[in-house]
Design brief:
about 240 residues; alpha+beta; 11-stranded antiparallel β-sheet; about 20% helix; elongated
């Protein structure tokens, strides 16, 4: 009888020790929030962080140059750009390498195949990142009679990030944006309309993986509407500021 009682006491003591260890173990807070994922999306779009707005402008700028130069079908061109800003709340430094091919319809230049690889870093009020990426675009509208350029394709960005909203959130992130009919006016090369799907994934040490999906609508007024896991934001395509609806 005494042996059984001792066994029960030993088990209770072990349980108490286990509970004590659990209570003293470090607390793991929530992973990347919806708002922080929206910041990753915004930084992949805005001019102030060398996002999709820059890349679409570069591609259509070169397309305009080729149209004006009356380049021949099948012409292959390359373009390298170094872009940086060291003043203000938004700073960045990027190197970009473009390769283009002039495509034709009925022996007349019709569209531009654009391939980009890039690397660099940026820092904004909510997020900083060191990253690299690529894009594969088809830029339609090389015909002199076309009023707009229209871009279809995919833009990617991956690297390390540091949240400034929650400084414990830092790790790796991947952003994938698939654009459809992104329309750029020829007169001033501003984004007039278009849509996209977006995927944001990554991991935070000791917190695990995160994954968000959403849609983008380009509004034609310098903003885009981002719907991310059901939450709606307005993204300023110049600054990358996001405002929740």
């Amino acid at each position: 009888m005494k042996k059984i009682q001792l066994t029960i006491v030993a088990m209770l003591l072990l349980g108490a020790v286990a509970c004590k260890k659990t209570s003293n173990s470090p607390n793991i807070t929530a992973n990347v929030s919806n708002a922080e994922a929206a910041d990753m999306a915004a930084s992949s779009l805005s001019l102030n962080s060398n996002g999709l707005a820059n890349v679409s402008d570069d591609a259509t700028s070169d397309a305009s140059t080729y149209v004006n130069a009356h380049v021949a079908c099948g012409t292959i061109k390359s373009d390298s750009i170094s872009r940086n800003n060291t003043v203000g709340p938004y700073t960045y430094s990027y190197n970009l390498k473009y390769n283009y091919v002039v495509d034709c319809a009925n022996n007349v230049p019709d569209s531009l195949s654009s391939n980009l690889v890039y690397n660099g870093s940026f820092s904004g009020p909510n997020l900083s990142s060191t990253n690299s990426g690529s894009s594969i675009f088809t830029v339609e509208g090389l015909s002199p009679t076309a009023l707009d350029f229209v871009i279809n394709g995919e833009y990617k960005r991956s690297g390390s990030f540091q949240s400034k909203i929650d400084t414990t959130n830092h790790g790796n992130s991947n952003v994938d944006i698939v654009v459809k009919a992104l329309t750029i006016t020829k007169s001033d090369r501003t984004i007039a309309s278009g849509t996209a799907t977006i995927s944001i994934t990554g991991d935070v040490p000791k917190k695990g993986n995160f994954s968000y999906t959403g849609t983008l609508v380009f509004n034609g007024d310098g903003t885009a509407t981002l719907t991310l896991n059901g939450t709606v934001y307005t993204i300023n395509l110049q600054t990358g500021q996001r405002d929740e609806h």
